[in-house]
Amino acid sequence: PTTLRVAECGFALSCRRSDVQRALSEFHQKYLAMQQAYRDRGEYPMNGPVEIRISSLDKPEDCLVPGAQIPLLSAARPWPGHPEWDCVIWFNILSIPGTPIATRYYSELEEWFYGNYTGDYAGVRIEWSKGWAYTEAGAYTNDVTIQSRIPASFMQGMPADANFRTAVDILDRLDPARIFSTRLLDRLMPRSADLNGDGRVDGADLADQLVAWGPHPSRADLNMDGKVDGDDLARLLNQWGPL
User: What is the pTM of this model?
Assistant: First the structure.
């Protein structure tokens, strides 16, 4: 016998405790509606359970360790702009790997999560250990989620020295050559274009990049392809401004 393998789509939804029933009811209604819509087409993408659990947020004072800090990229990290969000609802939707249409189903459900739980009502983060950024091609293929939604969920209202960009800077400092990186990690956490480390991407960084122009290793080689060229310049300009 072997352990059952499963494919999952996972979300961490932060909201008020008083809104938990509403959030669960809306998900339940959406889940039933999607099941019926797919069933009407003769499609059955979901053949596993739905797991839902609720927890509090990560709070340093709860661990009773002096100087404790909240992990920068914890899905249960408080949202500074919404101190009223005092709990996290964890949603895991499971299916057997290779089930036809499952990736389309997960993609549709992910779009609904990001579109439904918004504003002052709730905030969505992905659950790192599950599947996310779905398109029909599979998990980790949705560039909007990878390059925009996930970073934004760790930037909005966060301190300048403790946000998603901070985590990228730490990665760059500890692994400047990205030896321990992956293609997915490089897409999710691309090298910072703040080449001089002053907290903004501006003319000084552009000057440093132009000095490093050409086919040789450099910190200014933002896409890490062994040369500094037009693609690296485009990446720098895309990050232009204060971080």
Answer: 0.85
For the chain, the maximum distance between any two Cα atoms, rounded to a whole number of angstroms, is: 61
Element (H, E) at 114: helix 102-116
User: Coil, helix or strand for 212?
Assistant: coil
Q: Note down the domain range covering 237.
A: 164-242
Instruction: Return d(Cα 225, Cα 106) in angstroms, integer.
Output: 33
What does the buried/exposed string (b/e) look like for 193-226 if buried means 16 or more CB atoms within 10 Å of the residue's CB? bbbeeeeebbeebbebbeebeeeeebbbbbeeee
Kindly state whether residues 138 and 43 are assigned to the same domain: yes
pLDDT, tens digit (0-9, with 9 covering 90-100), for 192-233: 898 887 878 999 999 999 999 999 878 899 887 889 999 999
One domain for residues 172 and 98: no
How many domains does the structure of the chain reveal?
Answer: 2
